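Friendly challenge for the regulars: who can give me the structure tokens for this chain first? No prize, just bragging rights.
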Amino acid sequence: MAANWLSPGDTAWQLTAATIVGLQSVPGLALLYGGIVKKKWAVNSAFMVFYAFAAVLIAWLLWAYNMGFGHQLLPFVGFPHPIATMADELKQAAIPAAGATAAFPMSAMVYFQFVFAAITLILIAGSVLGRMSFLAWMLFVPAWLTLSYTVGAFSLWGGGWLAQMGVIDYSGGYVIHLAAGIAGFTAAAVIGPRLPRDRENFLPNNVLIFLAGAGLLWLGWNGFNGGDPYAASADAGAAVLNTNVTTAMSLLVWTVLDYTYFGKPSAVGAVQGMITGLVAITPAAGFINGYEAILLGILSGSIPWFTMNVLGKKMALFRKVDDTLGVFHTHAVAGLLGGIFTGFFATKAGTAAFGVAGDYGLIYGNAYQVVKQLIGAGFIIVLNVVMTYIILKIIGFFVPLRMKEEDLLIGDDAIHGEEAYAFYGEGDRKPVRGD
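First reply, four minutes later:
Bragging rights claimed.
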């Protein structure tokens, strides 16, 4: 017999939302990464995604979930302990430090929050593809999850000090995207650049596979933003609609700018615009209305385009730091943009529906919300620069952060003994007699 607190509809939606968010990572980002890189890095790039997805889940269950969403240990982090017994999994979902409950079981909450944590690490990988040692990546994933992600999650979502201040982040513009963009850029700086030949010539090996991954990422975002009200609610529907409106507008703006500036519309560029739209709407999704979603799409399709294609080619810092997929621009810049403009655009009706009624935006009469959003952004930026740097320096004492130079020349075959595509005979890597 079902418990009186359990809503079958909310439970079904939460598990569905979690599953489609998981599909953004595996296979979504595995395909996107595997298609956008050179052929020699396709397996390694996709494998980094699968490893992170698995490693985060085990750490999440054993200690990290409760650091992000459990009982408070410090104003910015919860007490680490497992959530693995049947009694834990069957009880009503609750976030004790935030005083929040949901009408589905704790198991659904743990899994839903896991897929968010996993994709954050996977996004960081996009900055260091093509040179980070796989062993160093294996160590980095649980360490960064524990020391950085959980702090941002608890501070903003778990009832920590930023939540108490009134900083709002609907579904991860700060906790996930700003954090991943800053951490990825820091990691790229510490690990160093790809080989010059790779950095100068890094054409995609399969644009169609890349686009397939991008499509999974876009539609999976319906669970990303639609699942965060923790209910199959009207607010969830508004968040899904706004997510797609901003994303479509951002893609169109980026494409027009590519056409105007470069003379050709680019499929890869359009996906960059799609991603910046998805990222920018994430902190605002259920807080703003449709007109504001269109305006946010114009901003997210133009400002990150400018930082990537103009500033990225002129500023010495961007030329020096080899951020492989431009994660700083697509996630840090877009996440910061979305978080700040949430402070302008958040409506009274949207914030009330989400349970943060007093935190509406500047254009509705609350100028202080922009200040709070800036404080939240500043904390996430400093946290991720400092923790990412420290974690990598400590790992570097024990194992090399970079692959060997000879492995960098060869790629997948040297690192994993595997290649992405076989072109000869019955799967042979090299032509044999009779082919």
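The longest strand covers residues 100-105. The mean pLDDT is 95. Your move, everyone else.
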